[in-house]
Every structure is written in structure tokens, then in C-alpha cells.
Design a protein that fits this description.
This protein has 171 residues and is an alpha+beta fold. 20% of the residues lie in helices and 22% in strands. The chain contains four helices and eight strands, in the order E-E-H-H-H-H-E-E-E-E-E-E.
Length: 171
């Protein structure tokens, strides 16, 4: 038996016409890394070009989130560090349309919270804080969440922030 010390959860609204099925369900897991994404990213040649062909053949669903994860894994393999991979991917996605790239990434050693969104592309009829990410530590437990999940408490992440929490220490 293994004790669970960390978890990531994604409460999904089943965006657009994407099927509600297991292959489209977050978190996506590959190479011991778990990934959840809140937002939308235009799929197509620009995003496809950022995905290593070996990862492209392993995609199981049809969501932009799984493709985003594959592009992040490709950048991580090339750079060797999450901060460098994230910076590289943001630069590579510069011309790609997205509403939000907010994500939680759980690795063997760390939890990463990625905050990047385009307020001009948030879903119609949503509040201006729709993609805000916040975090807090209470009773030694680190949590991060989107604005629609909990009230506006805790610390707000700035657009472009990348937060690292060491799993061993919680800091």
C-alpha cells in the first residue's frame, strides 16, 4: 500500500462539444506526471507542431488540454526543468489563441501551479475574474483553485506566474 500525500482535481464544465468520456478526463497522466488544465487553447497546426511525434501518437482523447499537456511534456524533455519548459512553451504559443493556460502539474517531487490567461478571450457571460488563480496554506496544506471554486481568499497569482511547491516539505 502507498499513502497518498498529494492530489490534483479538475472540476470540468465539459467545454463545447467535446465528449464527456474517460479519455477526455483530467488529470491526464504520462511519464509519472499528472496534469489538469482550466481554459481553452486553439488546436491545429500551431499546437500540433509543438508536440513530439512520439507523444502525439499516444494521445487518447480529443481535448485541447491533453494536447497542451503533450506540448508541455515536449518542452520539458527539451529543457529539463519545469520553469524553462513553461517559459519556452509560452514563447512558442505566442501566436496561438487561448483563453487560459492555467494548469496544475504534479510530478514525483513537486506541484506546479501555472497561471496564464487572456482576459479578452474568456467565455462570454463570465465574470472578469473567471480565470483568476489563488493559493493558500492552511494547517500545513497547500491548495490552489480557480475563482469559481472558492471565494476570493488567499493569494492571487499574477498572470504568467509559476508556483512550485515541494511535495516533501509543502513549501
Amino acid at each position: 500500500e502507498h499513502a497518498v500525500t498529494d492530489a490534483i482535481v479538475h472540476l470540468r464544465w465539459a467545454t463545447g462539444d467535446l465528449a464527456v468520456c474517460e479519455p477526455n478526463t483530467h488529470p491526464f497522466i504520462h511519464d509519472g506526471i499528472a496534469f489538469c488544465h482550466n481554459g481553452a487553447l486553439t488546436c491545429g497546426p500551431a499546437l500540433d507542431a509543438l508536440i513530439d511525434p512520439s507523444l502525439r501518437t499516444e494521445l487518447e482523447g480529443d481535448t485541447d488540454s491533453e494536447q497542451y499537456f503533450a506540448a508541455l511534456l515536449t518542452a520539458l524533455r527539451a529543457t529539463g526543468s519545469m520553469p524553462d519548459a513553461y517559459r519556452r512553451l509560452l514563447a512558442d504559443l505566442g501566436d496561438t489563441q487561448f483563453s487560459s493556460l492555467n494548469a496544475l502539474v504534479l510530478t514525483a517531487d513537486d506541484l506546479w501551479v501555472l497561471s496564464r490567461n487572456n482576459p479578452d478571450r474568456r467565455p462570454q457571460g463570465t465574470d472578469p475574474d473567471y480565470y483568476d488563480l489563488r493559493w493558500d496554506v492552511r494547517d500545513g496544506v497547500f491548495t490552489a483553485w480557480s475563482s469559481q471554486v472558492r471565494p476570493a481568499v488567499g493569494s492571487l497569482l499574477a498572470d504568467g506566474d509559476l508556483v512550485q511547491v515541494h511535495r516533501a516539505t509543502g513549501i
